[in-house]
Design goal:
Helix content is 55%, strand content 11%. With 214 residues, the chain is α/β, with parallel strands linked by helices. Strands 1, 2, 3, 4 and 5 form a five-stranded mixed β-sheet that branches. The structure holds glutathione.
Amino acid sequence: MLKLYGFSKVNAGARGHTRDLRVLWALEEMQLPFELVGMDHPAHDLSTEAYRRCSPFEQIPSIDDDGLLLSESAAILVYLAKKTGRLMPDDRAGEAQVVRWCFAALNSVEPPLLSLMVLDWTADGSCGKHRQFLVGWVNRVLTNLEAWFADRDFVATDGFTIADILMANVLSSGIKDEGLIAPYPAVVSYRDRCLARPAWKRTIDAYCAQVEAG
Ligand SMILES: N[C@@H](CCC(=O)N[C@@H](CS)C(=O)NCC(=O)O)C(=O)O
């Protein structure tokens, strides 16, 4: 049986936004049975030699699929899509678009959002110029996405794919201030369309029931 290493306990600020949710959502969409191995972050469950074999950077999520060990949320989603034949087209051109947008979500969209979030966690009020630069970077990316979503419902293909799980997760967990995304109505309605899926609702409800803040 596929094992997913996810959080059982994580700090209150991160709870509800952790990257195991990407895999949990994909598994729910795919209706794939799995065993959840709950990891307690404050108790240092991730910092063991055994866990480092699954996840070299001591992070969640990772999977063990009958001995195949894999970390990195996007790599796990691509693996699961290929294994099940779900949430990714099986033709080479369709697959290329999905992989492209998985990379775009984590490599082009997440970095400015994450950088701004980290600055806002840690800033002491003396980083005005730095923050202005990051807000500009965020707006550039969201402007480009707004144009991309002008005439499409999903990011990579006509249907919902694993790229939408990553993009919608980045656009929700990566944005604490809704004012940042509000000027981009096509991006907002894309994100909300993805988050309205019944599989996401089941995923976040189960997560909230299982994962402790600590
Ligand atoms: N690139 C990784 C990032 C994973 C990641 O940042 N995981 C966080 C939780 S959302 C984590 O495990 N943090 C614990 C730590 O670094 O100590 C992925 O996409 O899976």
